[in-house]
Amino acid sequence: MKILTAAQTRQADQATLREQNISSATLMERAAAAFTQWLMARQSPAEAGEVLVFCGPGNNGGDGLVAARLLHGAGYAVRVFELPADRYSADFEANRQRLPAPVPISTVRADALPAVPPAALVIDALFGTGLSRPLSGLAAALVQHLNQAGARIVAVDMPSGLLADAPQPPDSPIIRARHTVSFELPKLAFLLPQNAPYVGQWHTVPIGLSREFQAAADGNRYFVDATLLAGRLPRRAKFGHKGTYGHALLLAGSRGKIGAALLAAQACLRSGVGLLTVRTPAVGYDILQTAAPEAMALPDSSPDYLSELPDLKSYSAIGIGPGLDKADSARQVLEKLLRAATVPLVVDADALNMLGANPELLALLPPDSILTPHPKEFERLAGPARDDYHRLDLLQEFCRAHQCYTVLKGAYTCLGTPDGALYFNSTGNPGMATGGSGDVLTGVLTALRAQHLSALDAALLGIYAHGRAGDLAAQHTGEAGLVAGDLTRFLGPALQELTTAEAF
């Protein structure tokens, strides 16, 4: 799905009104009902306790008024507080009139901010996507007051004070929500680490926004889900054989880091590759032959580090980096690979660090290579970022300049492409923040490229399946107990979920 800007979100609302021939009040009722149903499914009246609804003067405040009315009708104890304003939106005014008399409504005053018991449930409906500048005055004071109260806060569509798709100045007042319930689509702000303290856990609820508008809207930011990936992973052929599914080469490992090579190899094998050869220093030979007998081991003459590039003519994709170390001999192997490779490359870990330290090597990177840095590795490649939004700009510039696909790893791993598009992954969990998880991803991507998938399809399928394998594994191990080796066990089921169904 596309990630819309704040302006496009407002345009989507208007397109929905026209196409469905409904009023803005009807769409507001629909949105607030979806929010309220989400809340009531998780908190009974007894569990919620007193519900304090804080409303701003615009349509986000109107959503809050509708939610207050619906919650009151369902038996919740509700009080409403509105920010004073010279002008309120028409739908806000209408829904203020519809608020039942038993629901108390008060105007917030600067000299007497309302008491907020820590046990209360606070609904933040002060400001939504229409906000274009940091909060100030009474609104800022109220946000700080709510944050300090220690109550549970649920934000309607956006935490008040947070901009949907741009950074705020330092120390801007922003609601710190425990949950944010967004209408129809996630916002870019939800996907960036710097905003996590404000967004909390985010959720989307459908409100019937125009599908036609979403499909036609200009934009190059996407949220990767199974729908977006439909049709990208073909079903395996009845008469296919190991040659059909490619021969991958992994260049990986060094003394003390053969485990990285092994994890990448096991992941590659579990991701459908037909044949796999693993080149490691001689110290890794017995380990690989024992722990990954399905792979062919090709030991280097050096005992501790890679020192020789093998003949490349047999391979359909090559992965390099897991556990490689930065020894000079390994750097020479990387340079020879960059100069000689005629098949797709996946570059990870120490191979990335060597690219960052040696710009002349980066200049040799073949087009359509897939790079898999974590944020620090990416900084070594592209320079430091002022904030998470600037990092996305750097990612786009880097991918355009080097005509590569860059997988910037994180909670919502972001794939940058040569044409400037950004794809944020929807799968994965904090249990995957463990050593070796990236090595597994390298194996997955190398296998998919070896099977002749395009760089874009391989990268999208790879990051999604990698995260989905982590989600499946966490159901068995829990997040704290998850180790990288668990991911390989669930790569097959994760990829099977994505396999194109056979047409009747």
From TrEMBL:
Cofactor binding, per record: Binds 1 potassium ion per subunit.
Binding residues annotated for (6S)-NADPHX, in chain numbering: 59-63, 128-134, 157, 260, 323, 374, 439
Binding-site positions, AMP: 409-413, 438
InterPro entries, per the entry: Carbohydrate_kinase_pred_CS, CARKD, Nnr, Ribokinase-like, YjeF_N_dom, YjeF_N_dom_sf
Every YjeF C-terminal domain range: 225-498
Residue span, YjeF N-terminal domain: 9-215
CDD domains hit by this protein: YXKO-related
Binding site for K(+): 60, 124, 160
Gene Ontology BP term (one): nicotinamide nucleotide metabolic process
EC numbers, comma separated: 4.2.1.136, 5.1.99.6
GO molecular function: ADP-dependent NAD(P)H-hydrate dehydratase activity; ATP binding; metal ion binding; NAD(P)HX epimerase activity
PROSITE patterns named among the record's database cross-references: YJEF_C_2 (PS01050), YJEF_C_3 (PS51383), YJEF_N (PS51385)
Reaction equation(s) it catalyzes: (6R)-NADHX = (6S)-NADHX; (6S)-NADHX + ADP = AMP + phosphate + NADH + H(+); (6S)-NADPHX + ADP = AMP + phosphate + NADPH + H(+); (6R)-NADPHX = (6S)-NADPHX
UniProt keyword annotations, A-Z: ATP-binding, Isomerase, Lyase, Metal-binding, Multifunctional enzyme, NAD, NADP, Nucleotide-binding, Potassium
Role according to the record: Catalyzes the dehydration of the S-form of NAD(P)HX at the expense of ADP, which is converted to AMP. Together with NAD(P)HX epimerase, which catalyzes the epimerization of the S- and R-forms, the enzyme allows the repair of both epimers of NAD(P)HX, a damaged form of NAD(P)H that is a result of enzymatic or heat-dependent hydration.
Matching NCBIfam families: yjeF_cterm, yjeF_nterm
Family recorded in the similarity comment: Belongs to the NnrE/AIBP family. In the C-terminal section; belongs to the NnrD/CARKD family.
Quaternary structure (record): Homotetramer.
Protein name: Bifunctional NAD(P)H-hydrate repair enzyme
Organism encoding this protein: Hymenobacter aquaticus
This protein's encoding gene: nnrD
